Amino acid sequence: QCPWGAPNTTSISCSLADVMSEQLAKELQLEEENAAFPEAVAVAEGPFITGENIDTSSDLMLAQMLQMEFDREYDAQLRREEKKINGDSKVSISFENYRKVHPYDSDSSEDEVDWQDTRHDPYRADKPTTTPRKGFIGKGKDITTKHDEVVCGRKNTARMENFAPEFQVGDGIGMDLKLSNQVFNALKQHAYSEERRSARLHEKKEHSTAEKAVDPKTRLLLYKMVNAGMLETITGCISTGKESVVFHAYGGKSATEDKVIPPECAIKVFKTTLNEFKNRDKYIKDDYRFKDRFSKLNPRKIIRMWAEKEMHNLTRMQNAGIPCPQVVILKKHVLVMSFIGQDQVPAPKLKDVTLSSEDMKKAYYQILNMMQQLYKECNLVHADLSEYNMLWHDGKVWLIDVSQSVEPTHPHGLEFLFRDCRNVSQFFEKGGVAEALNERELFNAVSGLNITAENEVDFQAEIEALEKMNEDHVQNHGKKLSMFSSDGDPPIYDE
Fold it and tell me: Which of 117, 148, 384, 487 is an active site residue?
């Protein structure tokens, strides 16, 4: 016979009813399975199903097989998620409660058991047993009271879970640790102190102007100045002090033609930390220009008044021709002035610069003249005049930091003047200026008073007597008229 010849097939004739019969379909399926798997094992009775005794004729069995395959894939996906989330962390999470566990899942052996796949962690310490109201458990020699060292140690370890989340207690909670009462109390006190410290630092950072930094409200004020075109750019911090932080900025364009903004500006931001002003309220509460507006119950307003006070004092000095920064604008506790220096380099303080004998003598007479102008023409006392608040620029002395300056009618105005005279006299005497007057002679030269006292104690006693007399006079006849009406002060914006 030719192998390439057409096979002899005998056609079996059957009716349409026989073709559609389910019995015929089952018989044909069994014949095909027997031909393909002649050594098939009969289906065993029992609850366990394996790959060799599967009966696909049952719809229920097919559904169970599909469900088992789906559960395996679901569990494998959960394991991959666990591994991805946990990584190398000592503290791990488990999705064991969400897994589908079947008795006929024989992929893993009984010897290989992952503790994360079990519902009970063998390494987790048992919860401390509660002590009944009677105070002890057990009988006879096995009695255990609530003061037992082991019981108290386990309770203290479990109570560490109540600490603040930011307090790191480590992974010892999951072990059978026993903390003594002394150690637990120390940890508890430390956790409480750290929580209070972090809250205090966060509040200070958010609501106050810190060293070389500004709070969000101050930053918003600076952004508004830049966006309005008043300032071109803010370069950085140039000075920090007890009460303020000074930044350098390049001036922009003014909104009005009569107001000219200098090319370089100094931005003085008064610190909003209240502890900086707890001892400085005496400069404001006894100043008759701000006495009616002073309120010790609202320290935030005191800080704004402090900035406004410096603006008014600088304006008086500028009108009198005293070398000082020119006021540009005031917004709340941010004061913009002209920059004393050049190319972002501030002018040196008088204590940091080395002057020749001629320049030192020139500086002394200039300061003497400025103190007289400040007292007689501006009706002010600097109240903090020293070599730290005087700059040397363009061959002359410039006065800065006049926020604490008061009028001579202040209850302590003459005391502040005498202190300024002492600072100036001592500095120039050390600098080698032979013509420098002592503090008592300088005080009489500036104030125009003729106090003749042989020693400093009697001199200060007479100053206090004059202040007392002046205070009684002011209280009887009313406060002195304000001079702000003729200052021509720059505008104050309170946005």
Answer: 384
